Every structure is written in C-alpha cells, then in structure tokens.
Amino acid sequence: MRKKIVAGNWKMNLTLAQGEQLVNDIVSAGIKLAEGQEVVIAPPFPYLARVKQLIRNYPGIYLAAQNCAGEKSGAFTGEVSAEMLASVGVDYVILGHSERREYFSETNAQLAKKIDLALANGIKPIFCCGEPLEIRKAETQNEFVARQLEESLYHLDAAALKNIVIAYEPIWAIGTGLTASAQQAQDMHAFIRSRIAEKFGREAALGITILYGGSAKPSNAGELFASADVDGGLIGGASLVAADFAAIIKSL
Ligand code: PEP
C-alpha cells in the first residue's frame, strides 16, 4: 500500500511565533492518522529546527524544507545544503515548486542534481511538476509533464525512486482559487503513474505517492483525494489556517 500524505507549504509566510502557534493548533486539532498516512509541514528555513521540536512527540507528522541548494557545500552565500537540512532533522524537501522554477529559473537539470543531494543525505524529495495555463489550453500538458519527469527523475534507479514523492501542481491552479477538477487531476496522475511504470516497472509505479496541489481546500479535498491515483495533497494557502489544514488531513 502506498503512503497517503497531506503536506503544508507555508512558503514565505508567518513569523516564528505565528508558526509555533499554527503547529500547536494543528497537533491539537484531534487528527487521527491511519496506518500509511502522513502529515508533512514545510516551514521556512529558520523555523525548521523549532518545528522539529514541536512535532517530535507526534508520530506521523514529518518536517520538510521548501528547497535545498544544488551544490554540496562551500562558497554559496545564502544557500542551504541538503546536509544542513538533514542535520536539523528534515525528512522531506519540496523540489521544483513552480515558484522556484519561475522566479529563480530552476531547470529540470538543476533539479535532478538537488534530488541526488537530498537522497544522498537521507531526505525524501517531494518533486513538483505541472503545466502552465497556455500548455493546458494547447492540450499538451502530458508531453510537458513527461519531460519534467524524464529530465529530473529518469536518471534514478527503482530503489532510489522509492524515496521520491511526486506532486502534480498545475500552475494555473496554484494560489488562483482555480482547482483542477477531480477528473483532470486523476487523468494526469494516472498518466504520471503510467510513465513511471514504463521507466521503472509496475511495482515502482504502484508504490509511488502522487500528490495533487493547486487551491486544494476543505471543500474540494475529499473529492480530489477520492480519485484512484491521487494519494493526498500539497497544500499552500489552506495550510496556513489550522482548522482548514486539519480538515484537509481528515479528508485523506
Ligand atoms: C502550492 O503552492 O504548492 C499550492 C498548492 O498552493 P495553493 O494551495 O495556495 O494553491
């Protein structure tokens, strides 16, 4: 059985005190995780060690960073390496978020390097893929996403792939209030799984967790997560409100 995950990406929001309050509200919201279900919280870098302390007594709740450097160590002012993240107890790292691709020009090839560094340090990448609106309008989203997978993941072997989570995030649905329909999400997730099966085999494809991201909220999470190939969600805006995030987790 593959893991089901709800991950909250805080992006560049909240002070430390607000973040502590949010984590405390989430853990006291009465969430009961079934076997194979996980919650992942991705605060900004400076709060990682503190959030790790706050979640340490809650099995099933894990810590993610929102990015890591594409180099191992050295003179890269302002960067944070995968080894540093591992040293403060980070479990997952979000890589290839569309905001990183768009505002910081991250390429599929750079992401392949970051994935290798994360894996080498025992951190599981949550690899984001997804198409912009013009690609969706041209109905070439499958080719677009296939290329992202090929250029960032296909150099791995099946054993390494076991530590990868994929998040399908159509860019036109991120932070816009527009959500992909459950059918659009299911179609793309099934397509991604079929590509993984072609490259890594059926067992790898059946085992990989594929999250949906893009304006997921309590009112649509249940329908999205009910689709056969949707294994949970990567949540932006709604992860900043404890009651909403808890309600989405309960929809798993
Ligand atoms: C995201 O940034 O990964 C995301 C899905 O954001 P939102 O839920 O706000 O659309």
Keywords summarizing the entry:
about 250 residues, binds phosphoenolpyruvate, Triosephosphate_isomerase_AS, TIM Barrel, isomerase, about 45% helix, eight-stranded parallel beta barrel, Triosephosphate_isomerase, alpha/beta, 12 helices
Listing every helix as H and every strand as E from the N terminus to the C terminus, the arrangement reads: EHEHEHEHHEHHHEHHEHEH
CATH homologous superfamily descriptor: Aldolase class I
- Spatial separation of the terminal alpha carbons: 14 Å
CATH architecture: Alpha-Beta Barrel
Bound molecules: phosphoenolpyruvate
What are the low-pLDDT stretches, counting only 5+ consecutive residues below 50? none
Count up the domains.
1
How much strand?
15-25%
The average pLDDT is: 97
Overview of the molecule:
It is a single chain. Helix 1 runs parallel beside helix 2 (48-55) and helix 1 runs parallel beside helix 12 (242-250). The longest helix has 19 residues, at 182-200. The chain is globular. The chain is an alpha/beta fold and 252 residues long. It has one domain: TIM Barrel (Alpha-Beta Barrel), CATH 3.20.20. The model has no long low-confidence stretch (mean pLDDT 97). Strands 1-2-3-4-5-6-7-8 form an eight-stranded parallel barrel, surrounded by six helices. It has helices at residues 16-27, 48-55, 82-87, 98-103, 108-120, 133-137, 141-153, 158-161, 182-200, 202-207, 218-225, 242-250; strands spanning 4-9, 37-42, 61-65, 92-95, 124-129, 165-168, 209-213, 232-235. Bound molecules: phosphoenolpyruvate. Residues 9, 169, 174-175, 213-216, 234-238 line the site of phosphoenolpyruvate (PEP). Phosphoenolpyruvate binds at residues 9, 169, 174-175, 213-216, 234-238. The active site is at residues 97, 169. Its main location: cytoplasm. Keywords: Cytoplasm, Gluconeogenesis, Glycolysis, Isomerase. Homodimer. Belongs to the triosephosphate isomerase family.
